[in-house]
Fold this sequence. Notes:
homodimer, Helicase, Ruva Protein, domain 3, 4-stranded antiparallel beta sheet, 6 helices
Amino acid sequence: MPELPEIAVLARDMDRDLARREIAAVEVLQPKCLNVPPAEFESRLKGASITRVHAHGKWLKLETSRTWLFINLGMGGEVLLVDRTRLPEHWRLAFDLSDGACLVVNFWWFGYVHVSPDPADHPMVGRLGPHAIDVTLPQFEALLRGRRGSIKAFLLDQGNIAGIGNVYVQDPLFMARLHPLRGIATLSSEEIAALWHALRTTLQQSIDLGGAAFEVNLHGEHGRWGREHFLVAYREGKPCPVCATPLEKIRTGSTAGYICPACQRLPA
Amino acid sequence: MPELPEIAVLARDMDRDLARREIAAVEVLQPKCLNVPPAEFESRLKGASITRVHAHGKWLKLETSRTWLFINLGMGGEVLLVDRTRLPEHWRLAFDLSDGACLVVNFWWFGYVHVSPDPADHPMVGRLGPHAIDVTLPQFEALLRGRRGSIKAFLLDQGNIAGIGNVYVQDPLFMARLHPLRGIATLSSEEIAALWHALRTTLQQSIDLGGAAFEVNLHGEHGRWGREHFLVAYREGKPCPVCATPLEKIRTGSTAGYICPACQRLPA
DNA sequence: CGGTTCAACAACGA
DNA sequence: CTCGTTGTTGAACC
């Protein structure tokens, strides 16, 4: 579930708190999440020092003195900076830092912790679209021009634009008064602009509040972007904040969509 | 039907005949083939002068003083340079040049005429694999290594290698003695080399003959690569040119395949 | 007739 | 929709 805001907050804090610290040891409980054998993973990272930490969509990209390290938390999980003596109960992988702290990674189901010499060469990171919140309006319009299919499916495809998941897609579509299944080809420039503004607003608001309340940051603290900020997401049955029509939960492809049936109409 | 050879011939002639000529006006009969509203399309191109014309796979790329213009003729069509007073009967879009000539685009079903600031930003052109006839043997081998699925599906995917369609894929597979459904992973280096040679030979022969006989060039003249050059393509029931076994038409995914069942065997 | 492209969906696997 | 890959179908409409 961590999407762009949570990853952005994590990356910012990791960049500030981890820069120039050295990885003294690596312990892997779940080798399946790696892209190389555990022994090679360890040898590539042991002794490396963390240079910078970046966010790209839902991915964390750690630049080290020896290699790039990419982390994707999959359907949900945490990256925590703890004391070596206070490891959390569940974890998949831990990096001991030379000063006694420990960077612990956990996730519920599948997640990735990959090493790579270069982001462009990585089969997943290399194919990401631009980091959603960095996209300019002209860029956004160019990305959409000539595409077919629904606007929601487009936004969720990380190859088009990176960082938006099913949580953060709902309210921007409502703010732009767009039904999730609206065909991209039918969008006017005004609608595209409204959607772009709404996406930025929503993502930035969550970043400013430290991310979603149901996720935790590097120090285990919950974000402050809670359900009270949601306009339509996960509010089926409640009144639309604009017109009071009861909100609906619909199926949009294989995912759930939350809409106001009056404000977000699908042209016949 | 225009595939790499026809597009290469068109691009060469357009580059020679259109360079430095100015687009004075644009007329659009079918707005659906555009990626921007017609008014914007016109304003982006009116007054632009054509700088260079390139071929990339099945796409024509026109570099102008103001924007890029990408043309894909889909399942068949023409780009003709005519006198303004002699417009053909069917056309989708016409560019009036300032000297009185007219560049007319037509296609049977679906085609694209798109503007874009940069080929890399265009959702289709930006994802094309390398122009098929420019691919070297080592490159070809590298493209195939590690891929799964059938060799025919790979060759037809414009993201892997650009320019090969269902017409030009048939004879090279026969020449390399490969069944269209052969798994890529089972191909030997010798088979890959034979396929690469056969592809180049077939594409280059057609280019040298001005493209397929059922297509026309910029001046409405038919190519000279006709059915008499086909080895197995569209020749079901006729004897194999190598072993005289009757050729077969088979289904390969959603497309038709033409094979010699004796020369192109599928290993059990 | 065919031939094109992308999108949607399923199934599977990590 | 955590992410890929593969294959299939369907839809674009003179």
